[in-house]
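Homework help thread (please don't just give me the answer)

Our assignment gives two proteins as sequence + C-alpha cell strings and asks us to describe the second one. The first is just a warm-up. Here they are:
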Amino acid sequence: YIMFGIDKLINWAIGKRRKNAFDLKEKDINNKITIVKMEAELDSAKNNHRNLLDLNNLYGQHENEIIRIKTDIRSLFESVGNIKNNIDAAAISKVEEQSQFDYDYKEEGEFRSKYHSEFISTDLFKYFPSIGLSVSKSKSIPENINELVVEKFITEDIIKRTHDASTDKYYMAFTKKGYSFWKQYLASTPLE
C-alpha cells in the first residue's frame, strides 16, 4: 500500500507540476499579449502625438502664410491708394494743362505771326525740333542741349518749368506761345 500511496502522490505532484507549468505558460502568454497591446497603444499614442505635432507645424506655417498674405493685402491697398492719388493728380494736371492752352483766336493769330516773322529766323529755331519733341513726349529736355539754350527758351516764353507736387519733381511744359509754335512747326514739317 505504501508503494501505491507513493505512486499516487507522485502522480498527483506530476499533475500539479504540469498544471503549474501550464498556468505559468498561460500567464506568460497573457502577459506577452498585454505587452503587445500596450506597445500598440504606445505606438498609436506616438503616432497621434506625431500627427498633432505635424498639424501644429502645418498650422504654424499656414498662420505665417496668412500673416504674410495680410501684409501683402495691406501693401496692395496702400499701392492702390497711391495709384489712385497719382491718377487723381494726373487728371488734375491734365485738366490744368488743357486749360493752360485754352486761348482765343486773336492770340493764336499773334502767335502764328510771331512764329513766321520772328521765331523761324532766330538761333533758337535750330534747337526747337529736338526740344519740342522731348517736351511734348517726355516733359523733359534732351541731355545734349546746353542749359543756356534752355534758359533762353524759358525767357522767350516758349517752355516753362513746372513743379509736380505729388511726385515733388520738376518737368518742362510748353507755354501757350510754345504750344502754338509747336503746332505750327508740326503742321509745316513734311513727313519723310
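The one we have to describe:
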Amino acid sequence: MGQISLQPEPGMSEPVGDDPRAAAVRALIAGDAALALQLARLARATVGDTLEVLYCEAAALIACGDPEGETALQNLRTSHAVIAMKAVEIDIPRLLEDSTYAHGVGVSLYNGKVMGPAALALGRAAANPASAAHAGLLQAQALHAEG
C-alpha cells in the first residue's frame, strides 16, 4: 500500500479570476447560496465534474436547504475516499469482502491521519464481530477528526 498525500490532487488549485469555481466559492463565502449553486453548475459545464466543483455544488445545495445536498456530499465523500485508496493500490473489492483486510487498511490510514478513507475502511471492518469494537471506535474517531 502506498502513501496517500494530503496535498491537493493534480489539477486542484486555487481558482482565480473569472473562473466559475472561484466565483462559486466567493458566492458561498458571501452567503449567496443560490448564486453559488448556479456558478457551481456552470463550473461543472465548463470545467467538468472535478472533486472541487462537486464539493462546491454539494455545499451550495446544503446552503440552499436542498436535502439532496446531504446525499450528494455523502456520495462524494465515499467516491473521494475510494479514489484516494485506489491511488495507493488498496484492493477495493477485497476491502469490501474481507473485513480483516479492511481493518488493517483502516488502521493504517487512521494512523496516517487520512480520516475519510480510514472511516470508510473501518466501517467495512466493523462487519467482523472480532474487530467490530475496535473498528467502530476508530471509525467514530476518524469521522470526528474529519469534521
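TA reply:
I won't write it for you, but here's a hint about the kind of observation we're looking for: Residues 4-13 have pLDDT under 50 and may be disordered.
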